[in-house]
Design brief:
- The structure is a single chain.
- This protein is mainly α.
- The chain has one domain: Four Helix Bundle (Hemerythrin (Met), subunit A) (Up-down Bundle).
- The protein has 8 helices and no strands.
- The protein has helices at about 5-40, 45-65, 80-110, 120-140, 140-145, 155-180, 185-190, 190-224.
- The protein binds protoporphyrin IX containing FE.
- Protoporphyrin IX containing FE binds next to α2, α3, α4, α6 and α7.
Length: about 220
């Protein structure tokens, strides 16, 4: 039999779990990016800029750019949707810039060392991810300048942007995970540190997937 205490404890437990996962996601964004920065020591070589800029772009900036729309995890919850949109825009421009710098650094480093380009799964998926994030950002322009997409409703554009944004985010997480499987990273850390590191992009991806799909379902419920 379910008593009153159980039904009260359940929402309280969900509330606590939501708060804890929000705090943990922000914590991962900052500390995982800082951890990779400490490990790669940006500035010590051309290569060192690559893991640093890519983690900054896809773990910190892109995660925070999406999280700010979360009703539970946003750091600017109280601000208007318009302001959130502007901050999202700035973070995404920074994300694309860091991704381009990270790609330029590794490409130049390979050129200096006379190594062939895009030969690993990480390199191939990474290149695809950087191209997709660029296209995704350009495709977002009609959200601010609606006249660029005549005949498309704003609601439809927003739905497509959220769905393709989630795919882009997952591509970024996949590229990060493959980067963590590189010879450089596996040689730099011990086994348990590797598993903990791999958990970071995986956990963030789960949180972002849950956020985007929940907001999609909520909108669908409102429409029906
Ligand atoms: C989403 C994030 C990332 C993207 C989009 C990305 C993209 C790329 C690309 C396109 C290349 C190939 C460049 C070329 O062949 O000229 C590459 C190489 C490399 N990346 Fe990343 N990277 C990311 C994150 C990381 C991280 C976090 C690490 C290390 C922890 C890393 C380590 C490496 C290494 C060691 C190489 C050289 C070996 C290879 O080509 O596989 N990357 N990356």
């Amino acid at each position: 039999m379910i008593n009153n205490r159980d039904t009260e404890a359940e929402p309280r437990f969900y509330g606590f779990a939501r708060k804890a996962s929000a705090v943990l996601t922000h914590f991962i964004c900052v500390f995982f990016t800082a951890f990779i920065a400490v490990l790669s020591r940006p500035g010590t070589s051309w290569f060192s800029w690559h893991p640093f800029f890519m983690t900054l772009a896809f773990c910190f900036l892109m995660t925070e750019a999406v999280l700010l729309f979360s009703p539970h995890a946003s750091l600017i919850k109280k601000f208007s949707h318009k302001t959130k949109g502007r901050v999202h825009w700035v973070l995404q421009v920074l994300c694309v810039s860091c991704a381009a710098l990270g790609l330029a650094a590794i490409s130049y480093n390979k050129h200096l060392n006379g190594k062939p380009h895009f030969t690993s799964w990480h390199g191939l998926l990474g290149l695809f991810t950087v191209c997709v994030v660029g296209v995704q950002s350009l495709a977002a322009l009609p959200l601010s300048y609606h006249s660029l997409a005549k005949g498309w409703s704003l609601a439809k554009l927003k739905r497509y942007h959220a769905a393709s944004g989630l795919v882009t985010y997952l591509l970024g997480s996949g590229s990060l995970l493959l980067g963590l499987s590189s010879a450089w990273f596996t040689a730099a850390v011990k086994e348990h540190t590797w598993y903990l590191s791999a958990l970071c992009p995986a956990f963030c991806a789960l949180i972002i997937m849950n956020q985007v799909s929940s907001s999609y379902m909520a909108k669908k419920r409102l429409q029906s």
